[in-house]
Amino acid sequence: MKDIPAVDIVGVGIGPFNLGLAALLAAHTEVRGIFLERKTEFRWHEGLLLPGTTLQVPFLADLVTMADPTHPLSYLNYLHQHDRLYPFYYYDNFQVPRREYDHYCRWASQQLAACHFGEEVCDVRYDASAGRFLIESQSLSGFKRQYHSQHLAVGVGTTPLLPRWAQVKSAAPIMHSAEFGKRQAQLAQCQQVTVIGSGQSAAECVLALFNELTPERVAAGASIRWITRSPGFHPMEYSKLGQECFTPAYMEYFHSIPRERRRDIVAGQGLLYKGISFSTIGDIFDLIYERSIGGADPGLTLLSNCEIEQVEDIDGRLRMTYRHRELGQSSTLEADAIVAATGYGHAWPQWFERLKGSVLATDEQGDCIVQEDFTARRCDDGAGQVFIQNAEIFQHGVGSPDLGIAPVRNATIANQLLGRPHYRLPKRSAFQRYGMHEA
Q1: What's residue 162's pLDDT?
Q2: Tens digits of residue pLDDT in 76-100
Q3: How far is CA 438 from CA 258, 433, 434, in A?
Q4: 20 to 30 A from 348, CA-CA: which of 54, 284, 393, 439?
Q5: Which spans are transmembrane here (predicted)?
């Protein structure tokens, strides 16, 4: 194992959030950082880089602009460097194509020497005698390294969640929507495909399948079903004042709420971020309308308020038992393939779980306690900070996973590492006041 000279911070995981932090720190030679990622290159939601899909935030929500609009790794400079500034100008769309955002981040990562790909973090522990963290990694070739760092930035991201009913062994494909793009050709060979979920990912999968479903295939028995346990296929909040919950102002307010109340609050805020964009809903509706002219079968059936209870493999086909949540009635449906757009969750690495209770303080639910400055509260009085990127939303509110919040969070982290307020943080980012009004 090779020992690497001590650094100031090691970032674990290189998604957009830690990549943005690496970009901000690159301008400051006094802070030595290394960022480690097990993938061989930057890739962002590979399975959902579908043609025609865009980010759901404006192009200003890149890696750096909201913290430093003059940064050389901004999206506008990326366009300039690739001779796409004028095409984007006439593209006349605030939202970036998803495939281009992925390419932009890869371009940025290739210019940052601190980013090390193809290197997986295997263990992290705290050396109290030295007052620093020991990080062990292993490359794809099996070569091991050990880093010594005063601070950590944990940006391991989320992983796809599959309900228990989707974990049945079957010859027929049952997949998470995160795999959709990679397995779309396989789905095209299936007569009956069921998509389950009511968020943007589900809608994009349905639209992609529906676009490929010709009237001839429908006449031959092909069909798509779209099922959700939600009351309907609703849009996410996209009004100008409604979007202010994705601002530093709301995040600051959220931290003023007693911690024990935050989980209940975010449980009722699903449609702020879990719904479907107006444009995708419109595209699906328009296709149904056009293909149902003259009483024709469009080939797409939408079922709301229906919850899947069980999936069985019956002679190579999938039989779904579902229950209508309001009527209380149950029935079955069959399909040749299921796409489960059932969301993502935090799967903290084992080494992180081992830090809980010994290095990191936890709450009554066993979760680490992420403070307003994005540090995890320590219980050992040790030196060094553990910064948490995109903690679960009950820690910081619904804006925690938002790309537009990330640069401000990274600016807050960078200022702490620099020991001075180098990056200007917004004093007021929302017109509305979330707390009590002071006369």
Answers
A1: 95
A2: 999 999 999 999 999 999 999 999 9
A3: 20, 10, 11
A4: 54
A5: none
